[in-house]
Amino acid sequence: MAKKIQPIERCDCDVIHEEIVNKVREKMPQEETLYDLAELFKVFGDSTRIKILWALDESEMCVCDIAFLLNMTQSAISHQLRVLKQAGLVKSRREGKTVFYSLEDEHVKQIFDQGLIHISEESK
Amino acid sequence: MAKKIQPIERCDCDVIHEEIVNKVREKMPQEETLYDLAELFKVFGDSTRIKILWALDESEMCVCDIAFLLNMTQSAISHQLRVLKQAGLVKSRREGKTVFYSLEDEHVKQIFDQGLIHISEESK
DNA sequence: AATATATATGAAAGCTTATTCAAGTGTTCA
DNA sequence: TGAACACTTGAATAAGCTTTCATATATATT
Asked: What are the GO BP annotations of this UniProt entry (chains A, B) (predicted)?
């Protein structure tokens, strides 16, 4: 995918590679899109949240069940669930005193799978 | 980040839902796998790194070109390239004084795409 | 109404991380 | 050899994040 460039000895970068930089700049998505993408991956970048998402992919669960499953305080889980909810990754429904959480977006597993492919490639 | 060793108090909820929790626990991947997955997404969770990866997907580039493209100092870019390299996402080759970076893993774009699907779904 | 249970939340502590600055390495060329 | 260039690296600072603790809210039960 990466295009070879001419063997340039000097890097008067701004001048000589200007063409490449301009071409890349044109093809780059909007600043905001890339920012949003980073924000999404940031949410995935914590093992507690990864575990929560993985668990919810298996089954709808209430807060204290998740806390017990992961051996963490209910408060910590609640805080993380809020992050996940704000990211549009999980949703909740109340049933009496209990609040059940479940996945909002079915692509979560697919994002995980792509990540796992990279990890398995790397460990070769 | 550091996890508590002390056991989490179980609520009545846990007793009732014990079956679900046990079922989910069985199906969860290894602790280490989930940790590695989070570490990978953590690397994607920064807009500077996202931009670098996106740029390198378009074309192999040298450090100061990336710095110019993103309007950042060469030092900052160099630090981030090291993170990306350690994650096995980019590779480098030296040509004289210049060091060219390119993508190491062709799945990067696919991971981005999955993320973008989520973002577009969310903005509906 | 009072109490217990399940969850949410605000603030603070403690840790992580991104960028900057200054100094270093490696390469080319006069 | 020395100066210029491209890049790297270590330390420091500042910003951000996760968890804990204490407290608040919502619901059910007696």
From this structure: response to cadmium ion
Q: Establish, for the pair of chains A and B, how many residue pairs have beta carbons separated by less than 8 Å.
A: 213
Residue A51 located in a structural domain? yes
Q: What is the pLDDT of residue B45?
A: 98
| Cβ atoms B81, B92 nearer than 8 A | yes
Domain that holds residue A85: 31-122
CATH label of the domain that carries residue B86: 1.10.10.10
Instruction: Kindly state the helix (H) or strand (E) to which residue A59 belongs, with its residue range.
Output: none
CA of B12 to C1' of D15 (A): 41
Please, what's the largest Cα pairwise distance for chain A? 71
Nearest to A118 among B3, B38, B107 (CB): B107
In a domain, A72, yes or no: yes
> Domain for residue A12, yes or no?
no
CA distance A31 to B93: 28
ipTM, 2 decimals?
0.91
pLDDT tens readout for residues B57-80: 999 999 999 999 999 999 999 999
Query: Could you tell me if residue A47 is inside a domain?
Result: yes
